[in-house]
Amino acid sequence: MKTINNFIKIIIFLVVLNGGILLITYVLTPKIPSFYREKHYDAVFFGTSQSYCSFDPLIFDEYHLKTYNRGRQQQTMNYTYYYIKDALDVCDIDVVVLETFGMCYEEDDTGFISEGVRDSSLNDMRMSETKIEAIRECVPEEMQISYFFPLDKYHSRWEELDYASWNGFYNSALKPYYEEADRGYKRWTESEVCVDDYWSIAFSEIRRDVYAGNIKYLDKIYELCQKKGAKLILVKAPLPCYDRVIEEMNTVSDWAEEHDIELINYMRLQDVLELNFYTDSLDGGTHLNESGAGKVSKHLAAYLKENYFE
């Protein structure tokens, strides 16, 4: 009988210990965005910072389109694939809009190994089979444990918690979602003049090889959208627009034509957008500011409304 009692005590101890570890892990792990609260979107935007600087959900609201921007800084195509997979697992999305600048990253680009890219892509992804798959596929093996069990990685979050009241503690530690400003869009009003006439070179027909790993994940995104019944649309923001990007986008355009996928290349529509190189760029030709993003968003919203939601 004593042996049985000791065994039961050990079991209870292990259950309490594991429960405590899980609770502490939950408290310390960063919250996930309010994106996950919804079960349906008309369109969701994915890609690099070119996505979160170009597509403003507030403007799509004016066209009665329910949208969210899931773009993340320097996000490489492998992470983007898992972001889209995760989104399609959790909700019904009519149109997946993929901003294609991530196709321009080279095999040796630091984005594939950058801790900042990993964290911005994984921190606010819900824990699921898809996230586990993403960690195993994208994170170096010796670093994976800190993403599966992030107690050490996020131990400093104790300092961010509000212990003054139950509501404060709930909102800072136990509430699962946080409200992402502007549904993921980054609203910057600063401007810096573009010194080059980008539009004049945007019509080059020269092709340049695209890193095969990027094509691999673009294929996977295409197959995933086919399986989930989501329409895939590729969009290239008007910036950045220089030789290598133009030439690689021509190659991506060939891929899109082969797969009967639409690619809206705003590098070639800068006149249609009436883009102003004095007022519409955040940083001299790399990203759009609020003024430039407003022009892209209005054009794309009208186009989606007319062609996909009428």
From TrEMBL:
It comes from the Bacteria. The chain crosses the membrane at residues 7-28. Gene3D superfamilies: SGNH hydrolase. Keywords: Membrane, Transmembrane, Transmembrane helix. SUPFAM superfamilies: SGNH hydrolase. This is SGNH/GDSL hydrolase family protein. It comes from Roseburia inulinivorans. The lineage of its organism: Bacteria, Bacillati, Bacillota, Clostridia, Lachnospirales.
